[in-house]
Give the backbone structure.
Amino acid sequence: EAQVTQNPRYLITVTGKKLTVTCSQNMNHEYMSWYRQDPGLGLRQIYYSMNVEVTDKGDVPEGYKVSRKEKRNFPLILESPSPNQTSLYFCASSLLRTGRSDEQYFGPGTRLTVT
Amino acid sequence: LAKTTQPISMDSYEGQEVNITCSHNNIATNDYITWYQQFPSQGPRFIIQGYKTKVTNEVASLFIPADRKSSTLSLPRVSLSDTAVYYCLVGPTLTGGGNKLTFGTGTQLKVEL
């Protein structure tokens, strides 16, 4: 089944304790992206990657890191989480195909709470 | 990126056709119009994308007038399971210079019996 998976789905952690949220897709998509969703603010892009070893900042990259060593994986790293990073996180991927519609596939989400 | 304006909420009944209009006065020449659907605590799901005139797929139709300053998502014969937030997005495609989706606040559609 074509899908984007994220782990963990739920995480409660403490300020300053490094964590990684994994994202994996099995559709051979070049493009991958991380979003956070907060009430009243909608979805905001954190980082994106157009292909392996190619990453760039989105709208709210502060406090986050990413890497794209393999095409299928795009982990989100919080080196020193803070309470303002409490949010619902979504990973998304898409095939880059000129002239065809841009359908981004989203993962199920990771609900992170930082105390 | 072009700013979009859509109603905050809409109510409908099962079996009705629902039309959600999105305003995007500053749409650029290379911008496409895309709609996503999101259920609570789930990731958004792509519905439809278009550039001009009319696009139809198995779940919806998208109407875009000639000036492209607005668009209308049409959901035929909605059911309770169509209750969700619908987002209108405007921007270049990923292969056309874009790199992200910019989500607004969306339209909360509530379908009742």
Q: What stands out?
A: Chain B is about 0% helix and 50% strand. Chain B has a mean pLDDT of 92. The first strand of chain B starts at residue 9 and ends at 13.
